[in-house]
From TrEMBL:
This is Major facilitator superfamily (MFS) profile domain-containing protein. Belongs to the major facilitator superfamily. Sugar transporter (TC 2.A.1.1) family. The keyword Cell division does not apply. InterPro entries: MFS_dom, MFS_STP/MST-like_plant, MFS_sugar_transport-like, MFS_trans_sf, STP/PLT_plant, Sugar/inositol_transpt, Sugar_transporter_CS. Residues 26-478 form the Major facilitator superfamily (MFS) profile domain. Keywords: Membrane, Sugar transport, Symport, Transmembrane, Transmembrane helix, Transport. Its main location: membrane. It is a multi-pass membrane protein. It is found in: Membrane. The keyword Transmembrane helix applies. One of its GO terms (molecular function) is monosaccharide transmembrane transporter activity. PANTHER family: SOLUTE CARRIER FAMILY 2, FACILITATED GLUCOSE TRANSPORTER, SUGAR TRANSPORT PROTEIN 1. GO terms for cellular component: membrane.
């Protein structure tokens, strides 16, 4: 996932290699990894806005929803079990990604993917056939475990299998497949909600079994990556595999580099203590602050709860689900813009432009909801212009996120960590992201109940803080190979005091091998 985020390589080495069927099939399976993660993000909000689902599993929420609009609308979804249904997945993902990193390293990427696939299948089936709330939660936890494994192994697998020159593009490609997963979930929710008899939510939740099966079967058929074989001492097999994967005979240069990279990464004894060294202060700061800020944009309020939110602010179930499809489509389209522009306009420009756009939209949405619902949450009659303005500004907000913090929240960390700290720093980025994803999922509905429209102003405040942070502290990383990052920190007005001359270039991040760029775990 980006939630695993894979690491873009350094340097511009041109190893011989073709886009072989192996590589293409790998991309399909990897895309499923992103898709299923996105699907799980997007599916829960839709089903929780379906009356038949609420009546069955959350009757108290259902009763509140049925009361007329003269009661406080802000609090109708404020239920701890309902939030647990959404958020448990992220906690499980956090826990399992810690285990998954060892499994991925010791037993190979493939086995980790297989685990992920099986857990996904089990989670999707339990959810689809759920009879009690606990089955829903157990299902979500299994999906979360699956995400921990898949997000650890799939991006890594992809970046190790793909020819070197495609790795950067694939990083955002993975984010794109997440956004497509979210959209697919929203579209299916829209149609399944219409099924007579009110059991459409079973199809929505159970639908995750399709990409889950593709990942499971894919991991049975696909070979392990040469990097992983080398890491486990199987050098000859690795070379033969590399030839087949690249579709050329002469792979010696890439192979030698892989072996060198593997030796280098194994020689790193204390990645965690390394990270605490003074010269890595900028890296540690970014590893924590970038994922923290990404979640504090408030994006997942929309991704998880868009239909619930739209319902709260006065839309019918059908209109809410439709509006979620609209925001989901904008999310996909704007991610494409990012793929196009990230190397043209640079990261800082996108961060700052996206931040400004999100800020304006949050202020407008807060003002609209505040004007209509006031502090007591009683809207009365809602005019059509109101719905149009709210949905439009939420779409512009989503676009701002999707071409800035969405992909860059994963891309930028992957570009700045030298090998010596890569595994530790990347784990921190993933964990911080999951923790705050969990927290937002867990507290949003309660916060909406208490802070009302002011909630959007809380996120707006953080957008201001993060934009200032980027402006002051984040150097541009566009077009900078990882081995030259030392120079970037050294010439930065603030970070130069931590990264001194001669200190940063200890040879590790200079590694002979560009494949070090794929090392993570
Ligand atoms: C974030 C997710 C979010 C998604 C939305 C990702 O970059 O990490 O939390 O749901 O973007 O597209």
């Amino acid at each position: 996932m980006p939630a695993g985020g894979f690491v873009v390589g350094d340097g511009q080495k041109a190893y011989p290699g073709k886009l072989t069927p192996f590589v293409l099939f790998t991309c399909v399976v990897a895309a499923m990894g992103g898709l299923i993660f996105g699907y799980d993000i997007g599916i829960s909000g839709g089903v929780t806005s379906m009356p038949s689902f609420l009546r069955r599993f959350f009757p108290s929420v259902y009763r509140k929803q049925q009361e007329d609009a003269t009661t406080n609308q802000y609090c109708q979804y404020d239920s701890p079990t309902l939030t647990l249904f959404t958020s448990s997945l992220y906690l499980a993902a956090l826990v399992s990604s810690l285990v998954a990193s060892t499994v991925t390293r010791k037993f190979g990427r493939r086995l980790s993917m297989l685990f992920g696939g099986i857990l996904f299948c089990a989670g999707a089936l339990i959810n689809g056939f759920a009879k009690h709330v606990w089955m829903l939660i157990v299902g979500r936890i299994l999906l979360g475990f699956g995400i921990g494994f898949a997000n650890q192994s799939v991006p890594l697998y992809l970046s190790e299998m793909a020819p070197y020159k495609y790795r950067g593009a694939l990083n955002i490609g993975f984010q794109l497949s997440i956004t497509i997963g979210i959209l697919v979930a929203e579209v299916l929710n829209y149609f399944f909600a219409k099924i007579k008899g009110g059991w459409g939510w079973r199809l929505s939740l159970g639908g995750a079994v399709v990409p889950a099966l593709i990942i499971t079967l894919g991991s049975l058929v696909l070979p392990d990556t040469p990097n992983s074989m080398i890491e486990r001492g199987q050098h000859e097999e690795a070379k033969t595999k590399l030839r087949r994967i690249r579709g050329v005979d002469d792979v010696s240069q890439e192979f030698d580099d892989l072996v060198a990279a593997s030796k280098e990464s194994q020689s790193i004894e204390h990645p965690w203590t390394n990270l605490l060294r003074r010269k890595y202060r900028p890296h540690l700061t970014m590893a924590i602050m970038i994922p923290f800020f990404q979640q504090l944009t408030g994006i997942n309020v929309i991704m998880f709860y868009a239909p619930v939110l739209f319902n709260t602010i006065g839309f019918t179930t059908d209109a809410s689900l439709m509006s979620a499809v609209v925001t989901g489509s904008v999310n996909v389209a704007a991610t494409l813009v990012s793929i196009y522009g990230v190397d043209k306009w640079g990261r800082r420009f996108l961060f700052l432009e996206g931040g400004t756009q999100m800020l304006i939209c949050q202020a407008v949405v807060a003002a609209c909801i505040g004007a209509k619902f006031g502090v007591d949450g009683t809207p009365g009659e809602l005019p059509k212009w109101y719905a149009i303005v709210v949905v439009t500004f939420i779409c512009i907000y989503v676009a701002g996120f999707a071409w800035s913090w969405g992909p860059l929240g994963w891309l930028v960390p992957s570009e700045i960590f030298p090998l010596e700290i890569r595994s530790a720093a990347q784990s921190i980025t993933v964990s911080v992201n999951m923790i705050f994803t969990f927290i937002i999922a867990q507290i949003f509905l309660t916060m909406l109940c208490h802070l009302k429209f002011g909630l959007f102003l809380v996120f707006a405040f953080f957008v201001v803080v993060m934009s200032i942070f980027v402006y002051i502290f984040l150097p541009e990383t566009k077009g900078i190979p990882i081995e030259e990052m030392g120079q970037v920190w050294r010439s930065h007005w603030y970070w130069s005091r931590f990264v001194e001359d001669g200190e940063y270039g200890n040879g590790l991040e200079m590694g002979k091998s560009s494949n070090q760029g794929t090392k993570r775990v």
